[in-house]
Amino acid sequence: MEALLPGLVPKIRAALAAGALLCLTAATGSAAAGPVLIRDAEIEATLRRVGDPIFRAAGLSPSGVKIYLIQDPEMNAFVAGGQNIFLHTGMIDRMENLDQLRGVIAHETGHIAGGHLARRDQAMSGGRNMMLIGMLGAAAAGIAGAPDASVAIAAGSQQVATRNLLAYSRGEEAAADQAGARYVSTAGGDPAAVLDVLRILRGQEALMGRDQDPYTRTHPMSSERIMMLENRIAKMPKGKAPDPEDVYWYDRMVTKLRAFTEGPAQTIRANPPVDTSEMATLARAIAYHRQPDTARAAQQMDALLALRPDDPYYIELKGQFLLEGGKAGPAAAAYRRASELAPDQPLILAGLGRALLNTDDPGAAREARDVLSRATRLDRKNSDAYRDLALAEARLGNEGAAALATAERYSGSGTPRDVLRNATRAADLLPVGSPGWRRAQDMITMARRALKK
C-alpha cells in the first residue's frame, strides 16, 4: 500500500477553488497541506467491486467513474473534478458494514448522476463580485473536509449570495440521498443503509454544537434528511443480504487500512496472537512489518498464503514486505508471481518494476522497462511508475525515452515548466516522427498553453 501525491491532486485543488465540490461530511475541520491519495491494488479492486453495481444502477458507465482514497481520519466523502469520488479513510473506518459504505458511494453517485457540479457552477456565477473572495476562502477551508465550518468565511455583504448558493446545496444533498437509496435498492442492496449513514452523521453533528444557523449549512441537518428519506425508503423493497464474497473483500480492505494507518501496538492489541482468524492474522502481519519485526511478519504472511496460496494480493503484500526489508530479489519473484495471477493490475506491475530496479542483476533493467511501460499504459496517473520507468530507460542508455517518461511524470503534477523542459529534451533526442517524438510534441504544446494561462 502506498501513499502518494499523484497528478490528480492539482485537479482536486482546482475543483475546490472553483467551488466544484459536493460532499457528505461530519468533519469539524482542520488545516491540511493537501490531500494524500492512497494507492493499493487490492483496495482499489474492492472499491470497484462495491461501487460498480451502484454506478450501473445510476445509468453510469463504471469505467467512467473513478474512486480515490484520501488518507484522512475525518469522516468525509465528496465528488470533485467530474466523475471522481473521493473517500476519506476515516469515512470507511466509521462505517459499520458493507451496505453502509455502499450507501456513501451511492449518495456521491447521486451528485454525479444529478449533474450537481454543473449546477453549482451556475449558482456561483450569479453571486460573483464580493462573494467570490469569501467562497474561494470557504472552498480552501473545505479541502480539510469542513464545508460546514468554512461557510463562516463568507460573511457581510456576501451573505445573501452565499445563502442562495447553499440553497442549491441543501436541495442537492437531499436529492443525492433520495437517488442514493434508489440506486442501492436497484442494485439489490438494502436502501436503509443510506439512513444508517445519516444517523451516524447525526451523531457526529451533536458533537459540533447546537447553535449553528441551519440556513447557512452546505447540506440539511441530518435529522431533516432522515425524515425526508424514511417515507421514501419505507416504500422500497428491503433488499437482500450482501454477497458473502463481497463481505469478505470488504472486511479485508478495512483490516488492511486500519493496520496500515493505526499504530502497530494498537493493531496487535486489537488482534492478539490467540486470534488465529484470517483477518487478525492479516492485521498482525502488517503491524509486525511496520514495527519492524521481519521474522514475525514473515510468519504471519506464510500463514495467510497457506490459506490462499494463489491470492495475488497476499503475494503482492509479501513482495512489499520483502522489498521494504531490503530483499529485492525475492521481492521481484513475489511480484512476478502476483502479476501472473493478476496480469492487468498496474500497481502490481509497478511494484515488480521497482523491485527489479533494486536488484543487482544487470539484465533486470530491460524487464523493468517492459513491465513499467505496461503499468503506465494501464494507469497514466502513477507518477512513481513513470519515475521508475525513466530510471530503467536511463540505465539502458535511452536518454530520450527517459526524458519522455520524466515529462509524463510531471504532466500529472501540475508543473508545466518541468513538463516543457523534459519534453523538449525528449523531442531533441528521439527520432523525428517516432511515436515518442510525437508524444513529446503534444506535451510541449500543452505545457506552453498551461504556462500562458
From TrEMBL:
<dbReference type="Pfam" id="PF01435">
    <property type="entry name" value="Peptidase_M48"/>
</dbReference>
<dbReference type="InterPro" id="IPR001915">
    <property type="entry name" value="Peptidase_M48"/>
</dbReference>
<keyword id="KW-0479">Metal-binding</keyword>
<feature type="signal peptide">
    <location>
        <begin position="1"/>
        <end position="33"/>
    </location>
</feature>
<dbReference type="InterPro" id="IPR051156">
    <property type="entry name" value="Mito/Outer_Membr_Metalloprot"/>
</dbReference>
<dbReference type="InterPro" id="IPR011990">
    <property type="entry name" value="TPR-like_helical_dom_sf"/>
</dbReference>
<dbReference type="GO" id="GO:0004222">
    <property type="term" value="F:metalloendopeptidase activity"/>
</dbReference>
<keyword id="KW-0378">Hydrolase</keyword>
<keyword id="KW-0732">Signal</keyword>
<dbReference type="GO" id="GO:0046872">
    <property type="term" value="F:metal ion binding"/>
</dbReference>
<dbReference type="GO" id="GO:0051603">
    <property type="term" value="P:proteolysis involved in protein catabolic process"/>
</dbReference>
<feature type="domain" description="Peptidase M48">
    <location>
        <begin position="44"/>
        <end position="232"/>
    </location>
</feature>
<dbReference type="GO" id="GO:0016020">
    <property type="term" value="C:membrane"/>
</dbReference>
<keyword id="KW-0862">Zinc</keyword>
<protein>
    <submittedName>
        <fullName>Peptidase M48</fullName>
    </submittedName>
</protein>
<keyword id="KW-0482">Metalloprotease</keyword>
<keyword id="KW-0645">Protease</keyword>
